[in-house]
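Case study.
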Amino acid sequence: NAGVTQTPKFQVLKTGQSMTLQCAQDMNHNSMYWYRQDPGMGLRLIYYSASEGTTDKGEVPNGYNVSRLNKREFSLRLESAAPSQTSVYFCASSGSRPNEQFFGPGTRLTVL
Amino acid sequence: KQEVTQIPAALSVPEGENLVLNCSFTDSAIYNLQWFRQDPGKGLTSLLLIQSSQREQTSGRLNASLDKSSGRSTLYIAASQPGDSATYLCAVMFDKLVFGAGTILRVKS
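After joint prediction, the assembly is written out as follows.
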């Protein structure tokens, strides 16, 4: 079992560019999440998907969109990247809310 | 507002010491509380999960307690080792998972 995987590991964008962060889990979990981690602010929830076909906003959704492609995959899209979106992005999954969450290795994104 | 606070922000101890990390939260209506470990530049590793109906959980040298009424949890690490050096994060599941800012632990050999 790979657990939760994320691609890419690192990315540098210019302001205004778009990109999609990919996440997949092989634990047959229903729920998936996207967080961002910034120094001194802990992790904050961007979006989550309680089950296939549903998505909901978290604490900091502005500037992001998500797609729950199937039960395994949950992607995060930045349509027009801004320097304020420079952060480390983590994907997580759980069997069902509010159970234990398992995290991927993260994507380190820099927006210039 | 649902908030999670961790004290201290950083801790440095000699190898072999027993230590306690503290986590406090503002709302007693929680589903569970999870302790994570994060190594520099890495993802989060789940250490212990305490359901709201439980008082403590143990795994090896780690013991986590939960007191919902006072809004507190502690993570006790016995006989600390240099390999325990990492950032420890407390996360509380309210209607969503809310993280503390973490405690940076350094165990000196």
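Observations recorded in class. Chain A has a mean pLDDT of 94. The first strand of chain A starts at residue 4 and ends at 7. We will return to this complex in the next lecture.
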